[in-house]
Amino acid sequence: SNNPKQYMKTVQIVVENSSLPIILCSYNPEIIEAGLSILTQEYKPLIYAATKDNWREMAELAKNFNAALAVSGQGNIDTLVSIVKTLTEDLGIVDVALDPGCPKDVSGLFHMIKAFTQLRYKAINEGYKYSSYPLIGTPISVWSYPEQDLTQKVWWETIIAAILITRYADLIIMHSTEGWSLLPLVIWRFQLYTDPRKPVAVEPGIRAIGNPDENSPVFVTSNYALTYSIVSNDIQKSGINAWLIVIDTEGLAVDVSVAAKKFVGEKIVELIKKNNFEEKVKHKILIIPGKASRISGDLEEISGWKVLVGPMDSSEIAAFIKKMWTPEKIREIMES
């Protein structure tokens, strides 16, 4: 609206309903000052953005209100670096972030990627301090172009955001809250910044799936994230209330961890004792994956529990439980 009073009201609503970090976006210093007047020193918001036309006023606001300052070269790297140099060297601004600019359509993609890459290259390989500050990507900029319809804007914003996550952006500003837009970005963010040498793992422990009680079956699985997700989901989908013992296999899947001697009886016993799990169930039966059948004898010996070898694939859990987890079968297993 470019209305200071309206902007103040908006910032006040955000402050009253969120404890998240705040970015104040406007090229108008008067609007930014109105927003800053609502915030106390503890917020330390990010001002977006200083440009070649307003950098003096924005720098003054950043200093007076203890705020960080984003700098926009509006698509020109030389201008961006020049402003940053002046702000940091001449005006003493310390907390700075850089916005190399985002395109409105596919024609500007090459320039955007090149700009982000050049800034990071100069910082890392040449030690150029003026390009070493955090990089901001602003896919939100697509919303300022009226020629695209709503779906096109969300789609294009998502594409730009995905590219920027890949190409060195430290912070991304988006407008869309559509699930189909944000979910792929979150997944990509976590996958991209995962050490490929270290398998993705969940915390070991004993999980309750549904509302298990003292008569519910007890499954065992590895802590490889994908295995855990599939097994727990298959148990839930089958409508079974069960306990799931997740042992630390260092993020390896069941078959691999058995071969590597990471899926062993000692780890299962350790979790049972650590959680006083014997007190939570009347029976003493463990259901291990079919691919871990070779440890069944050793597990029975060191744990004192009966071991039931489950299906080779967790999708067969429902049928397995229907057939094997009956009062008669449980009694037969315990007496064997």
Can you walk through the features of this model?
By secondary structure, the chain is of the alpha/beta class. It has 2 domains: 4-192, Dihydropteroate synthase-like (TIM Barrel, Alpha-Beta Barrel), CATH 3.20.20; 205-335, Rossmann fold. It is 44% helix and 13% strand. It has helices at 4-17, 29-36, 55-64, 77-90, 109-125, 150-166, 179-192, 225-237, 254-259, 265-274, 296-303, 317-324, 327-335; strands at residues 23-25, 46-50, 68-72, 96-99, 136-137, 171-172, 205-209, 218-222, 242-247, 285-288, 306-309. The strands form 4 sheets. A 4-stranded parallel β-sheet has the order 1-2-3-4, covered by helices on one side. The protein has a 3-stranded mixed β-sheet with strand order 7-9-8, with helices on both faces. Helix 6 (150-166) runs parallel beside helix 7 (179-192) and helix 10 (265-274) packs parallel to helix 11 (296-303). The longest helix has 17 residues, at 109-125. It is elongated, with a radius of gyration of 28 Å. The mean pLDDT is 94.
